[in-house]
Known about the structure:
alpha/beta, globular
Amino acid sequence: MYIGKEQEKFIKQLVRKSNEAYSNEHKLKPAEPMLIRAGVAGGLPFNSLTTDVVTGCLPESMACYGMCFSAVSSWENGIDFGKRVVNQLDETIFLSDLHTLPHSQKYIRCGWNSDPSWNWPISARMNELARDMGLLMIFITKAFCKMPDNIMQRLIMAEAEVRANGSKLNS
């Protein structure tokens, strides 16, 4: 689907307007970088999750059509969701979290509030560490950033599962 510049501008205005109620009342600041953790031992609500590789995603004019729970939550807490902040991977701590997962846990999802494509190198390294522990790493992405060939090879070698999704409204 191709849209012209004027149509694109109009759509961005509508998306921004749909998000104003959440973001306008707050003075927004970038998030603080976090340590990437895994599972309940790492402070996440489920053993099937890791911290996102990046905190933040898209600005209010491009966030997912006024429906992104992560963007809304960030804005309500004074965080500028459009300013992406790279989180830190301490391999020793991450591996410790993976070691504490129940033996029945056979997979883990890379993040849940942002997109792993914002930092493919960290995502790939997390996958390698998870695979070394016998876990399947699942990536759910809109592929905002193109995956470099060397990262694709690393994900293939470590048998990652990559689920890409899209929408006609993605910009």
